[in-house]
Amino acid sequence: MPDAAIKPPASLARRLFRAPESGLVLVILAMMLALTVFGGTKEKRVRESVSGEWTKVTVNRFLDFENLVLVAKDASFIAIMAVGMTAVIVIGGIDLSVGSIYALAALLGAMALRALQGHWLGVPAGGEVTSAGGAPLWAALPVGLGVCCMVGAACGALNGSLVVGLRVHPFIITLGTMAALRGVVFVVTGGLSISGLPESLSAGFFKAGIAGVYPVPLLVMLVVACAGHLVLTRLVLGRQAFGIGGNETAAQYAGIRVGMVKVIVHTLCGLLAGLSACVYLGYYAAFEPNAGNGYELSVIAATVIGGASLSGGRGSALGAVLGALLIQLITNAMIILDIDSSYTNIVMGAAIVVAVVMDQTKARLASRRG
Amino acid sequence: MSQPGDLLVAENISKRFGLTQALSDVTVRFAPGEVHALMGENGAGKSTLGKVIAGLLKPDAGRVMVDGRELRPGSLQDAFSAGVRIVHQELAQCPNLSVAENLCLHALPRTRLGLVDFRAMADRASALVHQLDAGIDVEAPLGSLAPGRRQICQIAAALDERPGTAGGAGPRVIVLDEPTSSLSVAEADRLLEITRGLAGQGLAVIYVSHRMGEIFAVCDRVTVLRDGRFVATTPAASLDEPTLVEQMIGRKLETPVRGAHAAAGARTGRAEGEAEAGAIRALAPEHATGQAGPVILEVRGLSSPGRLRDASLAVRKGEVLGVGGLVGSGRSELLDAIFGLDSRASGRVEVEGQRVRSVRGAIAAGMGYVPEDRRRQGLFFDLSIHENLVLPFMTRLASALGWRRLGAERRLVREKVAAFQIKAASAGLSPGTLSGGNQQKVLIARWMGPQTRVLLLDEPTRGIDVGTKAEVYRLVRDAAERGAAILLVSSEMPELLALSDRIIVMCEGRISGELSGEAMTQANILRLATATSAPAIAG
Prior knowledge:
- The complex is a heterodimer.
- Chain A is mainly alpha-helical.
- Chain A has helices spanning 12-18, 22-38, 65-90, 98-121, 137-166, 170-189, 202-206, 216-234, 236-246, 248-253, 258-284, 295-305, 317-336, 344-369, and strands at 41-47, 54-60.
- Chain A has one domain (61-369): ABC transporter involved in vitamin B12 uptake, BtuC (Orthogonal Bundle).
- Helix content of chain A is 67%, strand content 4%.
- Chain A has a two-stranded antiparallel ribbon with strand order 1-2.
- In chain A, strand 1 and strand 2 (54-60) form a beta hairpin.
- In chain A, helix 3 (65-90) runs parallel beside helix 8 (216-234), helix 3 (65-90) packs across helix 12 (295-305) and helix 4 (98-121) packs antiparallel against helix 5 (137-166).
- The relative contact order of chain B is 0.10.
- Mean pLDDT of chain B is 82; it is low at 253-274, 283-290 and 533-539.
- Chain B has helices at residues 46-53, 76-81, 99-104, 118-129, 147-159, 185-200, 212-218, 241-249, 260-268, 270-283, 331-338, 359-364, 374-378, 385-390, 394-397, 406-419, 436-447, 466-481, 493-499, 522-529, and strands at residues 8-17, 20-30, 35-39, 61-66, 69-70, 84-87, 173-177, 204-208, 221-226, 229-235, 295-304, 308-316, 320-325, 346-351, 354-355, 367-370, 454-458, 485-489, 502-507, 510-516.
- Chain B has a six-stranded mixed sheet with strand order 6-7-8-3-9-10, sandwiched between helices. In chain B, strands 16-17-18-13-19-20 form a six-stranded mixed sheet, sandwiched between helices.
- Chain B folds into three domains: 8-249, P-loop containing nucleotide triphosphate hydrolases (Rossmann fold, 3-Layer(aba) Sandwich), CATH 3.40.50.300; 253-366 and 452-531, Rossmann fold (3-Layer(aba) Sandwich); 376-451, no CATH class.
- The longest helix of chain B has 16 residues, at 185-200.
- The A-B interface holds A 5, 234-237, 239-240, 242-243, 245-247, 249-257, 313-314, 368-370 and B 17-20, 339, 341, 359-360, 362-363, 369, 371, 376-383, 387, 391-392, 394-395, 398, 401-404, 406, 425, 433, 446.
């Protein structure tokens, strides 16, 4: 008689279904289906590719390529940061300052890019800088990316060092840096926005149009999601992070450099906030001083909806990205279904609680099945 | 059917957790005035039965009756008002609150203004606690008490007659679930006295434990469970240890093969519980004495403020150095400091002449440490068994930039799971799915390997069943034979005596003496363990 204990390996479909993110994917698909059915249709002007004539076609309000890419774009700023936040929450921490880091990185990035543009156009200091012409992509992209990411990483490293060095809970530290960094932004800008960023970075790269849509933020988000997933699952650092979040004492007994890992994780979270800021600068070609205001809550919400546990030890980069998509879908649904946008926050708040409760129920059922 | 003389009857109880049948059709009768032990290996269902009786768990089938009245299944409230109380295995209390607050938490007395009446609270608490132990300060934070006194407070709480409960009887049945598992010898003795005292007052005491010495010291009758089934209820007086062990594990132990001082250990271990010594005699293989290999681990002048005072020791290749002493004497602190976990420690630790300064240095030098509390200090329940086994060595196995080499990891995991016979459905599952014994084996397997030079073991057999204990003993001897230097902390005397080549004894953070050969007796260990230095300098 064959040994009953040896089970055949689970099929791919089964494994996919068992993946912790599967529930979230189902919710997102169900929501997309509902929006497709109930969203109705609208008229859209489309240009014939052959004749070049404008014609009117009727399209589904939700299931329209343009709308979908727009949703993904809006989600991508949050999603990129949510990947970093996942790592922080996995080690049992939290970073409330991502919105402020995002703003500061965008501000310093914008100032650097504007200076670069001015230098390239030969405009004297203090002169009017236009975005047209000027610095080419090979100069603008490294400056933009470099400054934004470095500023973000530095802020993250500051958070991490304070958390580890002062042994204060990250909630307190990042609550402080959230306020302080936001203050720095307002002091530096005086509440004014910054424009005059190189066109090559916006229209030429981050807002490059392909077939009428702007997919670059979406692509950045996908790359970050995959990279984040690999860091968390396939790098020693990631597994050490999970170990620390699940049981910090045991991590010390296992010889993990807990403080070091925490600083690195906070630095990565800051770095991703900086990256997100760079995408934002590129996409909108301008800096607004209240950029990223309140983002920390959306980012944390996306992370938690994505299955991360605030007590540490659990979380997934892919889940966080799906969480960000779900949040954006809800916002989009309010528009598609013609619901007053004032209700958005109410629905969003309810959705966060429902999502987390559902996730926990699923986990409890799974553990009960043994 | 309730028979005359039975106070509480658990009848045909069955309980299932997932795939595990924890209890099947178990019937046990408890009489007033007796201490009735529930015994069995881990997973035998003894704790589950205790919880069912106390209403903490709802049985799938069967009923619990007190004086012939059936209790509402799974109702703690109903069990409580019928006088059935439980003192839980894990100390579930609020350490930040005072003893009095902990005892009155369910109904804080108030003044007329609605404020907490601290005086009334203290009076009530002391009335409860001082019948058990007059030395407890009820206004001190519970967390500041020694574990033994905390346990006594919990028993006191269980004895409380809750005011205002309609028809609330006083305590009549009390379930003690592993009450001594976190206590020192002296504390455990005190607890056993209290237990006898409770039975003397006419209570039925249900004593869940797997410490044999205690069972014979305190119990009138013993009910043994095995794999969730009832085996037998026997008066303790007509029971000897080998029979009890046989009832628990369902087979006879093989004829003892004993080494020179396994015998010495067993001789002195009699008072502690001869059955355990017998099990060790039977299962620990004979080992040569007086090995004189090179010194592998050398510790000189290791001190840490408030924890350790000038500890020096040397362990040779292939030697097991036992560390005796009472709980809180600094044994775990010594291991922590040797492993580099104590940042305030001063002194020298050398492995094969190489100085070790940090945990990472210790691991790199081939040191492994199985800490005392596997749930808190050892295992990662959010990670898989696989990752639990390799996490400290992941960096060593990984390629540049810390990219994991899953192939190498899996190979190592497969070897360890096979070598240590870890019974897991899959290495991808959480260690939470394993039994206590297998969890311990995961932890031992993590640190035991071909590169292991030094192995620090702190209570390696705590909370695991007899069968796994024997495996652990074999693993420890095997590792010594392969040339590791082993430092073994154990509160179980027979185990310490049988496994160690030499024993050092700790008292108040310093090494109070060393024993070898014929001097390794329980009496000598206890003498050194309680050898308080004349001007007792605390912390």
